[in-house]
């Protein structure tokens, strides 16, 4: 029997904790946002990655009531991080709808910026999050050892902690991050056939440390692979997560909503 491609109808409001709205191309923004409302997406956090998109994030949050944002430099762009960028992040992070510093971190899979520059930018922005008392949105790929060392170093001063988004690392990083008080963000990857390692991390994450995200426009969940990802596909990720964890989906969503509210002070 052919599987019907429908987005599950869920009644608990969902917070999209990680997407890149300025990179979505398939639909005009107003159409996209009405599809989000139809699918009970209550709030959206759109994530900054480089100085070139800081202003687009600010524009989106200024013009749309339920869109919030972050400011920060992604490890791919670490090479662009300097004192001017730092000042810009500090200034922009005073905006009441800028909820976190991110995404920041380490990516040794692609190494698009040199490792030493990645570490420098990551630590500098963690320092900044401590000073501004904001949580962080962390990207970590194939960089377990250095991520653990750096998180251990900063966690005591980073009062608002943060999230390891799109978690794909080894279990030991999951355990360490949870122990230090961080959340783990999961997205459409959990629905992919070959993502056993990600589901293993999901399985050991306490419900009180789970966050939902799409990371759209990337990582479209099953059964919508091939289409551009968007926050309105979150119910697909949520339903899969609930089935996999053997939980009532609405109950799980209530818990995740509470987690999102306590990490990001909307
Ligand atoms: Zn991202």
Order of helices and strands: EHEHEHEHEHEHEHEHH
Assign a percent range to the helix content. Answer: 40-55%
CATH superfamily, by name, is: Metal-dependent hydrolases
Instruction: Give the class from helix and strand content and strand pairing.
Output: alpha/beta
Summarize the biggest pleated sheet: 8 strands, parallel
| Terminal-residue CA separation | 44 Å
CATH architecture designation: Alpha-Beta Barrel
Which ligands, by name, code or SMILES, are bound? zinc ion
Give the domain tally.
1
Write down how many β-strands occur, each being a DSSP E stretch of 2 or more residues: 8
Residues in β-strands, percent: 15-25%
CATH topology: TIM Barrel
**Estimated radius of gyration:** 17 Å
**pLDDT < 50 stretches:** none
What does this structure look like?
This protein is an alpha/beta fold. The protein has a single domain (14-263), classed as TIM Barrel. 40% of the residues lie in helices and 16% in strands. It has an eight-stranded parallel sheet with strand order 1-2-3-4-5-6-7-8. The mean pLDDT is 97. The protein binds zinc ion. The site of zinc ion (ZN) has 5 residues, from loops.
Question: What key phrases describe this protein's structure?
Answer:
266 residues; alpha/beta; TIM Barrel; 8-stranded parallel sheet; 8 strands; 16% strand; globular; binds zinc ion
Write the layout of secondary structure elements.
Layout: E1 14-19, H1 29-38, E2 41-46, H2 51-63, E3 67-71, H3 83-92, E4 98-107, H4 115-132, E5 136-141, H5 144-154, E6 162-164, H6 171-179, E7 183-186, H7 196-204, E8 210-212, H8 234-245, H9 249-263
Parallel strand pairs: 1-2, 2-3, 3-4, 4-5, 5-6, 6-7, 7-8
Bound molecules: zinc ion (ZN).
Residues 18, 20, 47, 103, 215 line the site of zinc ion (ZN).
């Amino acid at each position: 029997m052919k599987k019907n491609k429908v987005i599950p109808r869920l009644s608990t409001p969902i917070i999209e904790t990680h997407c890149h709205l300025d990179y979505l191309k398939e639909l005009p923004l107003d159409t996209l946002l009405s599809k989000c409302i139809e699918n009970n997406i209550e709030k959206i956090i759109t994530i900054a990655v480089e100085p070139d998109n800081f202003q687009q994030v600010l524009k989106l949050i200024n013009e749309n009531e339920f869109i919030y944002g972050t400011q920060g430099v992604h490890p791919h762009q670490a090479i662009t991080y300097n004192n001017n960028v730092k000042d810009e992040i500090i200034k922009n992070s005073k905006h009441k709808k800028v909820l976190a510093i991110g995404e920041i971190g380490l990516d040794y899979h692609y190494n698009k910026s040199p490792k030493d520059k990645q570490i420098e930018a990551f630590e500098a922005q963690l320092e900044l999050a401590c000073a501004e008392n904001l949580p962080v949105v962390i990207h970590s790929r194939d960089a377990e050892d250095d991520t653990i060392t750096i998180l251990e170093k900063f966690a005591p001063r980073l009062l608002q902690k943060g999230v390891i988004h799109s978690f794909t690392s080894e279990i030991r990083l999951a355990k360490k991050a949870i122990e230090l008080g961080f959340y783990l963000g999961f997205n459409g990857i959990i629905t992919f056939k070959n993502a056993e390692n990600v589901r293993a991390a999901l399985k050991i994450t306490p419900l009180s440390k789970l966050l939902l995200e799409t990371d759209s426009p990337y990582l479209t969940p099953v059964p919508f692979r091939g289409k551009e990802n968007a926050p309105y596909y979150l119910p697909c990720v949520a339903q899969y997560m609930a089935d996999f964890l053997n939980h009532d989906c609405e109950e799980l969503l209530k818990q995740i909503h509470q987690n999102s509210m306590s990490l990001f002070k909307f």
